[in-house]
Amino acid sequence: MKSIWNGAIAFGLVNIPVKLYSATESSALDLDMLDKRDLSNIRFKRVNENTGKEVSWDDIVKGYKLESRYIVLDDEDFEAASPEKSKIFSIQQFIQEEEIESIYFETPYFLEPQKHGENAYVLLREALKKTRKVGVGTFVLRNKENLGIVKPYRDLLIINKIRFPEELREYDELKVPSIKTKPGELKLALSLIEQTSEPFNSEQFKDTYSADLLKIIEQKAKGKKLKVATPQGTSEKTIDLMEKLKASIEKNRKNVS
């Protein structure tokens, strides 16, 4: 596993040297884009807009368009913007994780202590477990400032990146209903929720779509004809909520018994 950031967690006046690793990977199948005429791979090129010629990575720079011209930025400029944030995740406050709405959560990263940082790493991990709190701070990753929380996860610490408020879009244009709920329907809905409530176990959820798609690929490779199931309809014009809720509750009872 390759680290994507080397820096430190600032815990008061204590700096904990750490390495950052991506904690997730896609479970989707790796599908290539092909030319349907001869199944050749499609390649994307970096092309100069004016000359139409391909540009090598060594000749590519980053720039910001200011008024009518581009201002080119190099690595030193990014570092100069906020040198302390480029290498330090400074914990600014401690909070209860439940205070953060789920819409703000984004990407998790594993943290590994570097040499001479082991004791402070364990100390912070155990203190967060004991207080049941998380540390909030910012850090720079890939030339972008990120907001995140430091929290214990099993026997290690992780940073979970969270969104800045300005990254959330307004939803004023959406048509949100303001109708009143019928007491009978609400009672059945609460009963259905209670009936299907249980402790969360991530192991019971699997990416079945990718597995099913792989089966189709294997069938096509053998020249077998595919059997396509008819998807369940979702565009009912009139819905009797009471009947649907009753049927759902009865179905769950049968599954349990």
Describe the largest sheet: 7 strands, mixed, barrel
Q: Give me the number of helical elements.
A: 6
CATH topology label of the domain at 5-26 and 60-167:
Ku70, Chain: A, Domain 2
Query: Based on helices, strands and strand pairing, what is the structural class?
Result: alpha+beta
What's the CATH architecture name of the domain at 5-26 and 60-167? Beta Barrel
Q: What radius of gyration results from the CA coordinates? A: 26 Å
What number is the mean pLDDT?
A: 89
The number of distinct β-strands equals 9
Proportion of helical residues: 25-40%
What is the 3D shape?
A: extended
SSE ordering:
EEEEHHEEHEEEHHH
Low-confidence stretches: none
What's the level 1 CATH class of the domain at 5-26 and 60-167? Mainly Beta
Q: In which order are the strands of the major sheet placed?
A: 1-2-6-9-8-7-5
* Oligomeric composition of the shown chains: single chain
Portion in beta strands: 25-35%
